[in-house]
Write a structure and sequence with these properties.
The structure is a homodimer. By secondary structure, the first copy, chain A, is α/β, with parallel strands linked by helices. In chain A, 43% of the residues lie in helices and 16% in strands. The first copy, chain A, is elongated and about 85 Å long. The first copy, chain A, binds a DNA duplex through helix 2 and helix 4.
Amino acid sequence: MDKVTIKDIAKVADVSYATVSRALSGSSEIGEATRERILRICDEMNYIPDSVARSMVKKRTNILGVVTASINNPFMSELIEAIEITARENGYNLMVCNSAYDLELEKRQFSLLLGRRVDGIIVIPAGKETVANLSSYSTDIPVVYVSENIPDAGQFFVAIDNAAGAKLAVSYLQSLGHRKILYLGRREGSLTHRLRAEGVVAACRELGMEVVFKDNDNDGKSSMEAGCRLAKEYFRSPEGCTAIFCATDALALGAMQAADEDGVRIPEDISLMGFDNISFTALPRIGITTIEQPQLEMARAAFELITRSSEEENRQSISIEPRLVVRTSCRSV
Amino acid sequence: MDKVTIKDIAKVADVSYATVSRALSGSSEIGEATRERILRICDEMNYIPDSVARSMVKKRTNILGVVTASINNPFMSELIEAIEITARENGYNLMVCNSAYDLELEKRQFSLLLGRRVDGIIVIPAGKETVANLSSYSTDIPVVYVSENIPDAGQFFVAIDNAAGAKLAVSYLQSLGHRKILYLGRREGSLTHRLRAEGVVAACRELGMEVVFKDNDNDGKSSMEAGCRLAKEYFRSPEGCTAIFCATDALALGAMQAADEDGVRIPEDISLMGFDNISFTALPRIGITTIEQPQLEMARAAFELITRSSEEENRQSISIEPRLVVRTSCRSV
DNA sequence: TCCTCCAATGAAAACGTTTGCATTATCCAT
DNA sequence: ATGGATAATGCAAACGTTTTCATTGGAGGA
């Protein structure tokens, strides 16, 4: 069965194809009777408008591009799902490209999307140089970076308030009676990590708590392995912390493994908190108390930023408030 | 900066735009000198070919559509990532649509993709009626269904050999000395579940093992909750099984939770196996021995089926061999 | 010198829509 | 009756490519 076009419909309905187009677009410049007749014919002939041709003339595709460091990563797949929902609600489709944490590939994917003439691109960055790399492309397609807010980069960002998240965690621990905590994470490295670490320092100072650091020097292993290694190092020469706060849930998972292997009980011997609220943390036997990044909210914010790109004035990077999710990995002391 | 088209290049290079097109497409019908000159100009002017216009005339988009029941589900997100890799390696982009397990939405998404003139559609079905629903669309766009092989449906499928997977599990348990096992799952319902259940029956008969069933009557709760409930029911009136084999990892996770809450130790008191090898199962504290569905292999198979649609003869549904993944949830008796 | 042939290039149609403008038909007020 | 406004429709250009066919120029053979 050959693809039926607007011309075929026009022939059958004995009108010009402009009229068919108008019937379909819901234009007011058409008689009610003809509209219904044409729509019926379209239905009978299984006509599906060609989005490619439509995009060609309208100069918009109703496609949103997504370049993500990973599709499979639980945080990101939830974010992508949230973006898809938001996009669909607004009549957009999603073109999803994986950069696999590879900056070169990320550039290629980005450029590919430009060629696809997508109406906007949401980037979940592959690394620290992502923003610098991609903002060198001169284009009028709106771009939003999600999950790390770099000030003065001349780009638009959606990110949670990492410092606030850190404070949320620290003050929760304080309310439980903890006074000295271990922070597992990187103090330099990505901006996200820096902000979280600084947030911890500030919150501890403000709340009169003591913090000791174990820096993840990021030797190429997975976060979970790193968390395991660092926690074990700490257990070998403990400094009296009653809680561990990890920069990410993956680190926390590793710390949990370390605790199990070293016979340290959670939360009886030490409390444990993560950051991100990836789906893992909710599992039975895991139950890690953590700080949530509300993905749906982030997706909506990114979408707004994309589609409001015409109104340049009131457009600025958006900061999302994190949320505390209490599970079973912390106890009061 | 206005979008630069092939005509702008032509004007600068002082050639016709046909020549520019030829230079870009690597056609042999062009002088080496002009080609290089044109390519240099394209580069200088940051020219990116318009895929929309190209698709319009070539009648192919180099886009693959994916309609998936969930983006976030760990099995599916891994599968989607695998599909993206395969697609990219072959010059395709992915348009990902979520059906959210909703058959109506699934139809809309499918129809949308037809309008997008994608070169093929991979469906991860939302439910039992998916195939019947979607095969009613008359289209010459190739379609492949992943993860459930319905015979004689006149469609193409990629699925693992569920019976073989079941047998793999049962004979592993037998090799560990188990002689009587509990099977948690649905015996009717989706084909996948039926095949797994039948595979268990057949394997037990063949290997001289006894099996007792707990049917998941699927009361709308999540699989994990169902697994928890069913396992608790069993623990209340045990029948001497030394191992539980669950139809899915989610069920197994629920069973594990039930065991924890009822003070049943895994694997000391009872062994536990799942099916699917979703990423959860590898986590510390979880470590569920399971049957893997190799997603990358499935993605490649689906892609082959899509792109080989012209050669109708040697094209048929593909069955993938499952693989045993041993972790710590089983012991020998 | 002339013809032939081939390589390189140009002209223009085609892909399936949307939309601005022109045209016709209809209706109401004068 | 006539004019003008308005509603409904048709015509044709435009979107940015690819590709077929025609044209040109020059090289090489006789």
